[in-house]
Design a protein that fits this description.
alpha/beta, Rossmann fold, 2 domains, 6-stranded parallel beta sheet, 3-stranded parallel beta sheet, 15% strand, transferase, Glyco_trans_1, glycosyltransferase activity, Glycosyltransferase family 4 protein, Glyco_trans_4-like_N
Length: 395
């Protein structure tokens, strides 16, 4: 089968799950003999532009004639069976959906976030869950400066999504939505997306054989780990606040917008070891050597690569009872769930697991079994190729 895979990469150095999924999923398809034609852009491209060109590119976020023409030309030349879009925002624009649909190629979109409900894709306002814009009244974003704290940028984004809401772009130009969890499905159906066009498919990670890191002088022998993006949506400020009540070694790896703030806080705490960005292989070794993983996210995770990767390493998780974690964590089996924003609940679960190494190991073994049942590459391939075949037959 021939697939045209389309994606807008985030900036270099940004820890982004959808970038990782795009790379691993296209490679998986190729490893099974499929032909994958990639069409990608990067937000780095925007950063390199001069002021005038940046203004032009900003207007093109509503409708990019450049990418519309490029996709049509590519489809006519390559004749793919399927067009699979991962992320179109901001540079590709929704015009690419029309480009494929008008040439009668089935269009599949993986929803890595909640952008069809919240144009900012976070469903957060002032660090609190918010799905108000699901009603299509996007200009409230301007009042709150939802997009990057800017009322002007929020106005631009609101116009883009208002225009495409009026045209029913996201309802009519997509043949199949791949959702990553049940919460995503509920949010879409609540605002009128057709249930028969929605299918659920988890992400996957390769089963990499990892040994725990050799003795390091910069971290203790026994510790808990957090790794991933150092950003507000990941619950970093909640983690800092809660760890004030824990005398447990915490190793943190990652980078992001709150990195300086977190580093400053970590410097004041003898039981916190901030390693910053850590090369992936070494990161996994350090995770492998941990007692368990904490994941205090405050937004709707799609299908967290950190969570399924931790399970692949046989590590239990203490995670927020929200989004993907609602169905991923079986309380008391492969980890513990704590209520969103409940510091006491989080502290109690972390302390309980820390005090009982045998329980942590038992939960880690169950987590490994859960990974083998749900998140192996070969199982994921059967799902994705099944979706493609179904759409091809309907054509």
């Amino acid at each position: 089968m021939k697939i045209l895979a389309i994606h807008n990469f985030h900036r270099t150095g940004s820890a982004s799950g959808d970038d990782q999924v795009f790379k691993s999923e296209t490679a998986l398809l190729e490893s099974h003999g499929n032909k994958v034609v990639r069409y990608t852009v990067s937000n780095d491209d925007f950063d390199k532009l001069g002021k005038i060109k940046k203004i032009k590119e900003t207007f093109a976020m509503l409708w990019s004639f450049k990418h519309y023409r490029a996709i049509q030309e590519l489809i006519k030349r390559e004749k793919p069976d399927i067009v699979h879009v991962h992320t179109f925002f901001p540079l590709l624009s929704p015009s690419i959906l029309y480009a494929a649909k008008r040439l009668n190629v089935p269009v599949i979109v993986t929803l890595h976030d909640t952008r069809f409900i919240c144009p900012c894709a976070t469903s957060l306002r002032d660090a609190k869950l918010c799905n108000d814009c699901g009603d299509g009244h996007y200009f409230r974003m301007c009042k709150y400066g939802c997009f990057k704290g800017s009322k002007l940028q929020s106005f631009i984004i609101a116009n883009i999504f208002y225009y495409h809401r009026r045209r029913r772009t996201f309802y009519d130009q997509i043949d199949k939505y791949i959702c990553l969890n049940d919460n995503q499905i509920r949010l879409l159906e609540d605002i009128g997306f057709a249930p028969q066009k929605i299918v659920k498919k988890y992400n996957f990670v390769s089963d990499t054989k990892v040994e725990r890191a050799s003795a390091r002088t910069d971290i203790p022998e026994k510790y808990v780990v957090y790794y991933g993006r150092i950003g507000e949506e990941k619950g970093i400020r909640f983690l800092m606040n809660a760890w004030e009540n824990l005398n447990i070694p915490l190793v943190v790896m990652g980078s992001g917008p709150l990195e300086d703030e977190f580093n400053s806080w970590a410097d004041r705490h003898d039981n916190v070891y901030f390693l910053g960005y850590t090369q992936h292989d070494e990161c996994l070794k350090i995770v492998k050597g941990s007692q368990f993983v904490v994941f205090p996210s405050i937004w709707y995770e799609g299908c967290s690569m950190v969570e399924i990767e931790s399970e692949s390493l046989g590590k239990a998780l203490v995670a927020t009872n929200l989004g993907f974690s609602v169905e991923a964590i079986q309380n008391g089996k492969n980890g513990f769930k704590f209520e969103l924003g409940n510091k006491g609940d989080f502290v109690d679960k972390v302390q309980l697991l820390w005090n009982d190494s045998q329980k942590a190991e038992m939960m880690g073994n169950y987590a490994r079994s859960d990974y083998e049942n749900k998140f192996l590459p070969d199982k994921n391939y059967k799902q994705i190729i099944g979706i493609y075949n179904m759409m091809k037959q309907k054509q």
